[in-house]
Amino acid sequence: MLPLSFQEFIDFHGFTIKETINALGNKKRYVYDSKGDRYELNELFQAYMRYGGMPGIADVGLEQERVLTLLDGIYSTVIVRDILERETLKSQRKITDSVLLRKIIMFLADNIGSNISISKIGNVLMDEGLLEKERKTKPSHHTVQAYVNALLEAYFFYEIKRFDIKGKEYLRTLGKFYIVDIGLRNYLLGYRNRDIGHVLENIVYFELLKRGYDIAVGKINQLEIDFIATKADEKLYVQVTESMISESVRKRELTPLEKVNDNYEKIILSLDNETMSYNGIKLYNIMDWLIE
């Protein structure tokens, strides 16, 4: 079972979305609480990006200290019971170093949406001094893989493979990882605004998963498409970015999609309020898309 989607987050917290028409005839969505107080949809989305979608948050309320206490309990349960104790019961004893496990968790959480290879994780942990100074050698490839596998089996992280669109095959290298709940990431790393694009990617990945898609990262020549989402005879190409206002960003996001020579839907999701089309590639506001 996955954490709440944005729409479910709104429902669980007792909010209702209502549409109004402004003087220019444009639709505007507002959110109302049980008392009738009105909020901008963006206010709720900022709360969702900060606190995540764990259902228990609806019980403790959107207060930072209480939410962090709840997330601390969830994190401790997953790591201590679901990983360390389970591995002991299995008598495999592969996951014995709790410090190394936490460092790998922190690394993966810090690098959601980035191309990562298992062989590089140990190197980075050593090179950046993230492991104890007394550790003389980096953890082996097999050790890192075992720890990452344990995190995947506990559904703390999800791995997504790259798919070569022209070669029509999955690639073995440089996949991506997404954390099951963005609130847990903020609990681990602290809330920050510098990598909103990857946070939005994380949210979109799990929304696509909830909608029943199989998902891969798209590779076309040396360019990348954030997500190829497929089910039955349906396929959707998705780019995610914070904003499309910059000309350089528009070129970066549009070019890979323009190189795909099929007629399946291609969309770009951003925080921009405009809905428009670039040569058949549709741009949507991510909040509108999430509550469709």
Helix content: 40-55%
* Global structural class: alpha/beta
How many strands, what sense, and barrel or not for the largest sheet?
Answer: 8 strands, mixed
Number of alpha- plus pi-helical segments: 11
The N- to C-terminal Cα distance equals 21 Å
Supply Rg.
21 Å
Total tally of structural domains? 1
What is the topology, as strand order, of the major beta sheet? 5-4-6-7-8-9-11-10
Q: What are the low-pLDDT stretches, counting only 5+ consecutive residues below 50?
A: none
Envelope shape: globular
String of helices and strands: HEEEHHHHHHEEHHEEEHEEEH
Count the beta strands.
Answer: 11
Mean model confidence by pLDDT: 88
Indicate the proportion of strand residues.
Answer: 15-25%
Describe the structure.
The chain is α/β, with parallel strands linked by helices. The chain has one domain. Helix content is 42%, strand content 24%. The protein has eleven helices and eleven strands. An eight-stranded mixed beta sheet has the order 5-4-6-7-8-9-11-10. A three-stranded antiparallel beta sheet has the order 1-2-3. It is globular, with a radius of gyration of 21 Å.
Q: Main traits of this protein?
A:
globular; 11 strands; 292 residues; 11 helices; eight-stranded mixed beta sheet; single chain; alpha/beta; three-stranded antiparallel beta sheet
SSE inventory with pairings:
Blueprint lengths: L5 H7 L3 E6 L5 E6 L5 E3 H11 L5 H4 L3 H26 L8 H13 L7 H10 L13 H13 L3 E8 L4 E11 L2 H8 L6 H15 L3 E7 L2 E9 L2 E7 L6 H12 L6 E6 L5 E3 L2 E5 H5 L2
Parallel strand pairs: 4-6, 8-9, 9-11
Antiparallel strand pairs: 1-2, 2-3, 4-5, 6-7, 7-8, 10-11
